[in-house]
């Protein structure tokens, strides 16, 4: 459901995608990331709720695109952890999963900023926790419905606030594209849990989101540099060192472990994202500590003549 919803909204999400760079691809990146997760689940036979999200999260992490796609992938993978072994979802488990997701997402980004998808995820977790605490551990379906309602309502409020939290969004009179994408995903979850359609008025009044609103991303100045993403297996110490190196070379650094299972050498698989002046700058640093795979390089501009995702 989330896959189709993001496909339907990708053009509008792209049109308001101006932070951290105006590369007009947040909608596309979220769609491709969620599609990878959905297809992985469809091709598997998970045994419980946590296993389902674990499969989805790993696939999303391995195929994540862009800042927002990577952070959603991190969130999905993190949500799986409190749910492993659970045969059904309930309010306390949902609140715990969203709490774990927001902690992991904030820690994955070297320079987290309010007014982004992170704020929306944090609000969703807080909204779910607030409702769940008032229900005193109630595991009924009714309590689950109230908990997801609380999460979605809080997430929507946070999306509205993004416009005032980041100067670039305030100046452009738009809300954060990644935050809207996450809101849509959460409402898809709400729809599945309640067996109801998605909320028709969910996006009403969001700045810049009317169909007739201009595609402001295309009018923004061109962005220099590239986005580099890859998977790599490193020990936690080596990963921390690489993060510091990439922080000095570029920005928008995101690093998160794909799995909590280490190999015989104590190394974990990581998904990495960074914006740098040239691909070589990042790749030299990455290849100095390990052997990257599933590498993608994309131009940081909405004006690129063609999709610059080069898989190496």
Distance between the termini: 31 Å
Helix vs. strand class: alpha+beta
Poorly predicted parts: 304-312
Work out the radius of gyration: 19 Å
In one word, what is the shape? globular
Count every helix, treating DSSP H or I runs of 4 or more residues as helices.
11
| Largest sheet composition | 4 strands, antiparallel
Percent strand equals: 5-15%
The succession of helices and strands, N to C, reads HHHHHHHHHEHEEHE
The strand order across the widest sheet is 2-3-1-4
Write a structural description.
The protein has 312 residues and is an alpha+beta fold. Helices cover 55% and strands 10% of the residues. Helix 3 (49-63) packs antiparallel against helix 4 and helix 4 runs parallel beside helix 9 (177-194). It starts with a helix and ends in a 13-residue tail after the last strand.
Keywords:
11 helices; disordered C terminus; 312 residues; four-stranded antiparallel β-sheet; alpha+beta
Write the layout of secondary structure elements.
Layout: H1 2-15, H2 26-42, H3 49-63, H4 66-83, H5 91-108, H6 117-135, H7 141-165, H8 167-172, H9 177-194, E1 226-234, H10 236-249, E2 251-257, E3 268-276, H11 279-287, E4 293-299
Antiparallel strand pairs: 1-3, 1-4, 2-3
